[in-house]
Write a structure and sequence with these properties.
Layout (H helix, E strand, L loop, with lengths): L8 E2 L2 E5 L11 H6 L9 E6 L5 E5 L4 E5 L5 E6 L4 E6 L5 E5 L3 E5 L6 E5 L1 E2 L2 E2 L3 E6 L5 E5 L10 E6 L5 E8 L2 E6 L5 E6 L4 E6 L10 E5 L6 E7 L5 E6 L3 E5 L5 E6 L6 E7 L5 E6 L4 E6 L13 E7 L2 E7 L16 H11 L10 H8 L3 H13 L3 E3 L5 E3 L1 H13 L2 H16 L2 E8 L2 E8 L14 E3 L4 H9 L7 H4 L4 E4 L6 E9 L5 E10 L5 H21 L8
Parallel strand pairs: 1-24
Antiparallel strand pairs: 2-27, 3-4, 4-5, 5-6, 7-8, 8-9, 9-10, 11-12, 13-14, 14-15, 15-16, 17-18, 18-19, 19-20, 21-22, 22-23, 23-24, 25-26, 26-27, 28-29, 30-31, 32-33, 32-37, 33-34, 35-36, 36-37
Helix pairs in contact: 2-4, 6-9
């Protein structure tokens, strides 16, 4: 850290603190081992938000889990015989806990019951699991820290696959703590507390880890890096316990900001939340407080759920446990009907078109098919709420409330949340690698990518810059990214297909994707080996690619050309 000038300082505030009714300072077996026998009233960790915007935190020494409302009100969800540390909430609502004493646990937030999920590794106890993270495919990564450190560098990092396979990725870490997974699952970042370092662990297709390296050194202090989080720009946020700070580091480990505690020095963990995902919440365990600050860049969205399988130790034996995840496709839909008047109001708003200033009542009647009296009644209510303005001549103009909602939409809109499901759908239906490219000068940038399940595939990662060559991807970026569009764009049939243009072994097919106002958003593509993605195979995949591109265009607010 000393190689750089001090980064800008960002202040925090106390969002809420553990109420006194939950505080009773006393010794415990945990504090005897970890706080030199000093009595404690709590030690907060594991912040994580559920879908309702409620924050869950753990209290290690007393086996408690709390839930905090958006207004900062606390309620105790569970109290059990354990030392809960990390906590993550799956997209299906299940709550996983890394319990230092008991292994991986599951919490039922309704009943408060905590049950075993994974207590042993091949009948051997863990050292003391610490934190966990989910990969984009549903696999679980977790750290096994125990009392390891520079005196005993045998801390471990595990991966639990969706098939139930438990792999030891590395077993030579002096105190592995917080953990995050790259969006494309190409590497892990692990907080190594006692070494004051963040380690980078590359993940290979065969499941192995090689060339483990130091991503960054912290300057030091009485503790070290603890909880980790990634933001939407791929920057790493590090809770520096013992120094009262959260560091924001670039993907190249350059310190970009210091987020300073306004309370104690024990900043243990962090989570993004709030309506726009830009509020950072920090557990400060010295004072039992939750700190908050608002950042310009939101946090990284959670990956979509996948089935998880584990072996659960039960009365000395192990039995397989398969947990089925209810996806959005299988959830029963409520049989509710829409409100007709709301539909007519939305029809009225949709009648306004690009270039309109004010529209007369007669024109609104013609565009919507609604009778004048209905339009006038709807307009009275919509004018009262700021959605319409009635001018002196009786015509109507859109109101300022729509501008406000548009600004909210723009701030909350995340392209990634739309593109990644489209790429996953392409891979599921074609078994080839799917990517989304944008142009950056004379290069094409792979913005998002999902790899083919085949071992033989083109190895490109998110963030890779490739030349604007003669590939189908570059042709689409070059042609449709030009303003105004060249004449040949109107007659070009997409998707475009090329084989062996950049690499004699690689074939690709690409089609444009559009955003609001007929803007060009980028190129959606499939790539694979020329022996598999032949012209015949491309012809079969073509309607799939076009349909996904059309659906993605609509979700981005654009119009996909037909014909």
């Amino acid at each position: 850290m000393s190689f750089f000038a001090p980064p800008p300082r960002i202040e925090t505030e106390v969002f809420t603190r553990l109420p006194d009714r939950y505080r009773k300072s006393r010794r415990s077996a945990w504090s005897d081992a970890n706080r030199a026998g000093r009595p404690v009233d709590s030690f907060l960790e594991g912040p994580s938000f559920d879908r309702q915007g409620r924050l869950y935190v753990t209290d290690i020494p007393f086996g408690r889990v709390f839930r905090i409302s958006a207004e900062g009100e606390w309620e105790q969800v569970a109290e059990y015989d354990g030392w809960p540390n990390g906590l993550k909430i799956h997209r299906d609502g299940r709550i996983f806990i890394t319990d230092y004493k008991r292994g991986i646990m599951l919490l039922d937030p309704g009943s408060g019951q905590v049950t075993p999920f994974l207590e042993t590794a091949r009948s051997e106890s863990f050292k003391g699991v610490n934190d966990l993270a989910f990969g984009p495919g549903g696999e679980m990564y977790f750290t096994d820290q125990g009392q390891t450190g520079l005196q005993d560098p045998t801390g471990r990092v595990y991966r639990l696959g969706t098939d139930g396979r438990l792999d030891l990725l590395i077993g030579t870490v002096p105190s592995p703590n917080g953990i995050v997974v790259a969006l494309d699952a190409s590497f892990l970042l692990v907080a190594v507390t006692r070494a004051n370092q963040i380690w980078r662990l590359p993940l290979h297709a065969d499941g192995s880890v090689t060339k483990a390296s130091i991503f960054c050194h912290l300057h030091g202090g009485p503790s070290g890096p603890d909880g980790l989080a990634l933001d939407a720009e791929g920057c790493l946020l590090v809770a520096h316990a013992g120094f009262g700070t959260v560091w924001r580091l670039s993907p190249r480990a350059e310190p970009l900001a210091r987020i300073a505690s306004c309370a104690g020095w024990s900043t243990t963990n962090l989570a993004f939340g709030g309506p726009e995902g830009r509020d950072l919440f920090i557990t400060e365990s010295e004072t039992g407080s939750i700190l908050r600050t608002t950042l310009e860049v939101p946090g990284l969205p959670l990956p979509p759920p996948r089935p998880l399988t584990a072996r659960v130790a039960c009365r000395g034996r192990e039995r397989p446990l398969t947990v089925a995840v209810m996806t959005t496709q299988t959830r029963p839909k409520a049989s509710l009907e829409g409100v007709a008047s709301a539909g007519r109001a939305l029809t009225l708003l949709s009648a306004f078109r690009k270039g309109d200033d004010a529209i007369t009542l007669a024109e609104l009647t013609a565009r919507t098919g609604l009778v004048k009296t209905t339009i006038m009644r709807l307009a009275i209510t919509m004018e009262a709420h700021g959605y319409l303005i009635r001018l002196a001549d009786g015509s109507y103009r859109l109101g300022a409330e729509l501008f406000r909602l548009g600004a909210v939409y723009q701030q909350s809109f995340r392209v990634e949340a739309h593109v990644m499901p489209a790429l996953e759908r392409l891979v599921a239906e074609t078994s080839e690698s799917a990517s989304f490219y944008v142009r950056s000068g004379e290069h094409r940038l792979c913005l998002y990518r999902v790899d083919s399940p085949h071992r033989l595939r083109l190895h490109v990662r998110q963030g890779d810059m490739l030349p604007m060559d003669n590939s189908a991807i570059a042709h689409v970026l070059r042609m449709f990214g030009t303003v105004p569009l060249p004449p040949e764009a109107a007659s070009t049939r997409v998707p475009l297909y090329t084989g062996g243009e950049r690499d004699p072994h690689v074939a690709g097919m690409a089609t444009p994707v559009f955003g609001p106002g007929e803007s060009f958003a980028g190129a959606l593509c499939l790539t694979g080996p020329v022996t598999r993605l032949t012209r015949e195979a491309a012809g079969t995949a073509s309607p799939i690619l076009l349909q996904v591109a059309a659906d993605l265009t609509r979700s981005l607010g654009g119009v996909f050309p037909t014909g």
